[in-house]
Amino acid sequence: MQILWFNNKPYFIARMLISAEVAKYFIKKPLKTQRIIETLEDASLIIEIYINDKMQIKPIIYEHIPHIRLLEPL
Fold first, then answer.
1. What angle do CA 7, 64, 71 make, to 5 degrees?
2. For 26-43, what is each residue's pLDDT tens digit?
């Protein structure tokens, strides 16, 4: 698995709920380690990405506020 940032920390999974309004962007141009877990009835997505630093996902979340919600890690 290729990690977005290079450091010696072990990677972990971040799970996010992506609203239907921006889900098309995550389908059209997926993140490097993204995996779509589930497509919900309203066309929103649950995705997982492998990261090794919480700072990796902050820009993604900030860019898509309020259309993205972090489910794990809390």
1. 65
2. 999 998 889 999 999 999
Domain positions in the chain: 12-72
Q: Which CATH number fits domain 12-72: 3.30.870, 2.60.40, 3.30.70, 3.40.1000?
A: 3.30.70
- Per-residue model confidence (pLDDT) at position 73: 85
What does R_g of the chain's alpha carbons equal in angstroms? 12
pLDDT at 1 over 70: no
Question: Starting from the edge strand earliest in sequence, which strands make up the sheet with 12-18, in order?
Answer: 35-39, 45-51, 12-18, 68-72
